Amino acid sequence: MFKIISPKLILISIFIVYSFLISGCSDEAMTDDTVRYALESEPSTLDPAKSTALAESNVELALFEGLTRLDEHEQPQPAAAKSWDISPDGTEYTFHLRDNLLWNDGTPLTAHDFEYAWKRVLDPQTASENAYMMYPLNNGEAFFKQEVSADQVGVKALDDKTLYVKLKAPITYFLNLTAFHAYYPVPRHVVEKDPEIWAANDKIVSNGPFVLTHWIHSNQLQFVKNDKYWDKDKVKLENMQWPISESQSTRVSMVESGQANITVEPPISEQERLTKEGLFKMSPYLGSYYYSFNTQKAPFDNPLVRKAFSMAVDREKLVNNVIKGGKEPAYAWVPPGLTNPITKQDFRHEGGNLVEYNPQKARELLSEAGYPNGEGLPPITILYNTNEMHKAVAEVIQAMWKENLNVNVELLNQESKVYLDARNTGNFQVARASWIGDYADPMTFMDVYLDENNDGQYHNPLYNDLVRKAQNTNNQEIRMQAMHEAEKILMDDAVVLPIYYTTQPYIAQPYVKNYRWSILGTIDFKEAYIENSLEKASEK
Length: 540
What we know:
Elements: H1 7-21, E1 34-38, H2 54-63, E2 68-70, E3 76-78, E4 81-86, E5 92-97, H3 111-122, H4 140-144, E6 155-159, E7 162-166, H5 174-177, H6 188-191, E8 210-216, E9 220-225, E10 239-243, H7 248-257, E11 262-264, H8 268-276, E12 280-293, H9 303-311, H10 315-323, E13 328-329, H11 347-351, H12 359-368, E14 380-385, H13 388-405, E15 409-414, H14 416-424, E16 430-436, H15 443-446, H16 461-471, H17 476-492, E17 496-508, E18 512-513, E19 516-517, E20 523-524, E21 529-530, H18 534-538
Parallel strand pairs: 1-10, 1-11, 14-15, 14-16
Antiparallel strand pairs: 2-3, 4-5, 5-7, 6-7, 8-9, 9-10, 11-17, 12-16, 12-17, 13-17, 18-21, 19-20
C-alpha cells in the first residue's frame, strides 16, 4: 500500500523516469510557449460519441469544436456555425456553417459531417452512452430504439454549409447542447475506414484549436496548434504537453518540479501549503459527487435498504474532516448554481434538502427491510476508481456503515477504464460516481435517470413522466415545477446517495494565462498562453 509519508524519496525515481519520457521538462524548456496540463487519468477513448469521463472531455475540447462554443459566461457563441435562424415556435433551427471549414488532414468539413456524427451517436450499433443527449431531436429517441429509420431523425444537411434541425419540442437550452462533445462533428471519411480505433491513437482527425501528435498511453499526450482551424489567429500556444497520472500527489510534484504547470484536484492535505505558495486556486463547478446504488442487485433492490444506507452517512463530517476544498454537503441531487428564470431563485435553495443524516431512522428502516442490526445482509462492496480522495471517502463511509448499521463492507478499487466498464455493465452493488452538468439547466441532472438507461438501472414511470413534461414545454414555470417534483421522487426512491456538491480545486503556475475553467468542469486552452517572463515566474 502506498502511503505518503516521505514523498521526496518516493518521487525521485518517478521523476527520473519522467525526465526521459517527457520531452521539454528541463528548466530551460519552461521558457517556451508550452502548457503542460497534468491530466488526471488515461482517456479510454477520444471518440466524442463514446466518451463519458471529464478527462476525455478536456482532451476533446482541445481537439474538436461543435456548432457553438461556450464563452466565459457559459453562453453559446458561434463556432463552426457562423449564424443560425430559429423558427417562432422554437422547434426548428437552420445553422449556417463558416466558409472553408477543414479537418486537420485538409479534408473539407461540411454540414454532412454534422448530420453523420449526430445520427451516429443515436445509432444503436454505436452503443453510445451519450445517445440520450440527442433525444431532443425529432425522432431521435425513436431511432435509437429502432422504431424509425435514420432518415426520419430531425437533422439534415441541406447542402455543404447548411444544417437543418427539427426538435421534438422547444428546448430552451438547445444552443448550449450544440457545444457539448456528443454534438461535435466527426470525420466520416476516417471513422468508416476504422470505426473501432480511429479515436484511440494519435492519428485522430479533428477540427478544433489543436491537433494530437503523440499519445503515449498512460504516459502523456502532445498537441500542436491546428493551422487549419478557422479561428487559429486566437490560438496563442504552438504546442501543449499533457503528462498523465492518476496520483494527486504525483501531479502536484510535477507542477512544483516544472514537469507540468497546471493540474486539477491536489490532495486536501496539501491545499493549505499550496495556498501559501500561491498555487492553489478554486473554480465554480456544477456537479454532484455521489454513490450510485444498483437498484437491480440485492440488497439495494430494496428502496428501504437504500434509504437506510443513505441516512447512515454523515455528510457534514465527511466534508469538514476529509473532503474539504470548499465543497458543500449534498442533501439532494441537483447542485446549487442554477437559477429558476421565473422566481429568480436558486433551484436548489427552492427545493431544499431532500435527504438527511439520521442513524436511528436508518436502523429502523434496515430492520423494516428484514435486516435487523444488519443481520442477514449479503456481502456488500463499494466500487471506486483509483484516486486518493475516492479511497479516503470510501474508507470513511465504510466505517460509518459499520458504526451506524453494524454492516461490514468491503472496498474494491479499480483503474478508471475497468471501473467505468463495471459501472456501465451493472457489475456492482454500490459505486462511487460523479455527475457534471453538460449545460446550465437542471435538466442536465434530471434526465440522467430518465428511463432505465442509467448505471443504477432505475425505472420509475412517474419520474419519467415528470421529466418528459419538463422536456416538452417552453413554459419555464411548468418546467421548473415538474423538475422539483421529479427530484423529490428520485430522492424518495433513494436511487443515489448524494455526498457533496463539487467545486474545482486546482493548482497553476502564475505564468500560465488566459485558460478558462467552465462551471461544467472542462478547461479551455484555446486562448491560453505562457507569460514570457521568467522573472515573474520565479518571483514567488
